[in-house]
Fold this sequence. Notes:
This protein is of the alpha/beta class. It has one domain (3-272): 2-enoyl-CoA Hydratase, Chain A, domain 1 (Alpha-Beta Complex). Helix content is 43%, strand content 15%. It is built from 12 helices and 10 strands. It has helices at 35-50, 91-94, 105-113, 129-137, 153-156, 164-172, 174-182, 189-195, 207-216, 225-236, 240-258, 261-272, and strands at 9-14, 19-24, 56-61, 74-76, 118-122, 125-127, 140-144, 148-150, 186-188, 200-202. The strands form 2 sheets. It has a 6-stranded mixed sheet, with helices on both faces. A 4-stranded mixed sheet has the order 4-6-8-9.
Amino acid sequence: MKKENFRDISYSKDDSTGIVTLTLNAPKRKNAMSPYTFLELFWAVDIFEQDTNAGAMIITGARTSEAYDPQNEAFSSGGYFHPDSLKGIPDELLNQVDLSDIAQKKMTLKMFNCDKPIIAAINGLAIGAGYTMPLSGADLIYMSEHAWIRLPFSTLGIVPEFALTFLLPRMMGFQKAKDIIYFAKTITAKEALELGMANEVLPHDELLPFAREQALKLIPPNGAGMAIRQIKKAFHKPFIDAVSKSLDLENEGLSTCFATGDFNEGMAARIEKRAPVFKGE
């Protein structure tokens, strides 16, 4: 897939610096990511890896309204599974969408194995995959002061994806991670920083400039790019098998949960904007 054909994301490179900016670009649905979006992300990372002149990547979200309102922007509102999301896609691309890979193992391992630095600039709400994707795929996470995180899996009757079940407990410990996931807590940017879920919190208008400044420090001429890549390999490679196994377990759990009445109730409650009434089955 060529970057010129991307539909749900946009990919641009500053040739003078080698910094790639990847923007989640579905503002009408608050940058929610469909199975096709994840395929585009996979190919975007592949293009980034193959480009010898691309040194670092920044992932952010498109502005979701014409009126500038930093308090109501979205990085991504999570997964988007409406059937229309796959309409109009050529067969040669549609055949690459694996609907059984609900936890996004292929995409997660692609990003986790990428040895070039990736920075997430979370400019607004990050719900579900809106946080789990950058957590597994980005080396550094910077957040706008107005951004927030919610991991609502339990309220939908499902389990997380993108290897969150492996990564989050190792970030903050099992008890705190379970507390956040079991009770689907909303995490402010300040709280995310305190919990280690983000590296920095910035005034909204300073988020992207700061991310670019940090990216420049990781690539030539300001940063020892080869050393950074070797450091990243040393960080990640010992955990690849564990991340892969975690994704298998998440896919297994998601397949099980999607067939339950609790999942149907969780989705119905979300649509009807009410509290779900679960039966545990």
